[in-house]
Amino acid sequence: MKTVLRLWVGASLCLAACGPMRAEQARPDLLGRVVRADQSAVTNATVFVYTAGPKIGTGVVCPSCYPDCAKRANTDAQGRFKIPALDPALLFRLLVVAPGHESQYAAKTDPVHGEKVIALVPLSREKLEAKTRITGMVLDAEGRPLPGATISPEGLARGTSTHWGGTDKFVDPLAVADERGQFWLFCAEGVDAVHAVAEGRGFAKRWVELKPGCDHLVRLPEGVTVTGTIQKAGRPVKDVQVGVATVDRIAGHFFRLDELATDEHGFFLLSNVPAERDFVLYTTMDSLRGQGAVPSKTFNTGKNGAVVKLGTLAVQPAFRVAGRVVLSDGQPVPPNTRLFLGREQAWDHTEATLGADGRFEFTDVPPEEVGLSVRIKGYKFSKRNPSLDWLNGGLVGRVTGDVTDLTLLLEPGQWRYNGEEGEPPGGQSQPRDQPLRGAQL
Predict the structure, then answer these.
(1) Residues 118, 129 within the same domain
(2) What is the tens place of the pLDDT at every residue in 344-362?
């Protein structure tokens, strides 16, 4: 019942955001064909409207919460399908699954552009019988198959080591469950286990460990709904990008959900957030530019099926961080060099292009811990920077007010990571909790 209610709320938000003008527009049918490489028809394929997003502007509901995302169609004997009456203001991401074929996405589909042709690749017998293949089924908590669920490898174990990121050389980058919830992944020799994120529309993500040569049952929970309102001086703020990420950033545990925009009432609703985890909720600096900032908020999601109401989050005064990047040998900063400012707690960052004299300025920076980094070939951050991050080579520190004279000093050399530069004089390799400070020239 809670799932049905959540989808109804998402649909209501969409209708409110779309307004009467959209309702008056013609709703086109999506026509298409599913074929193989030789253009022969794929019959009995299922075409899902998997996610959607506005052609112009930012969505105010999750990509799978638009009413059209409940639609699907099967192909006929000629491989043709028809999905009727789609919203003309949206672009759609389709998912096509068919027995005996590799599943396929079709992104940025616009029904007004005519027939959509989607090609599928048959699964070879060699692949299906390989000892290095991983098979499984994705089910909901009640044991029903979840067609369209994805399995995304993020790491893999080989021998005594586990490698995170860049796994495409050793395992397929993605598997999509077919109509029966079945999926296949194919690995290279020597892979002992694959660490992947399982995700299905309308359900919470989870991490899974999959082993080649084995069959797996993956059950996805409903997750939690998180709601709240963004206001400034008691008035709602529209189009603020809101996101959540786990406090735990360790590979194999970390989750981040897509950011969504507040509606005209300042309201946001994040659905299917993983349960019983500590998350940080944040608003992006760029979406509040010129208005201030909402400090990050840490919360626990609680049990599956819960609704976490965060209430009203107020836009507060934010600060200015400005200064210059200086090269110790007196050379000019290369043109179009970009400086990166990221928030240490929130999964949020912004960038600034350095001037010819190396000067930069960031506005609307929250009173939080931030990191600064820049890449200039042949240079590294000097140890004369008091806020030096000795592990990663940038600067880290807390913004407690306007910082208008921050000097980032770089010197010739190549930074060596993870403590290979030695130990800082004060013994604190990452001074995140100290005020952000620059070098004294």
Answers:
(1) no
(2) 999 999 999 999 999 999 9
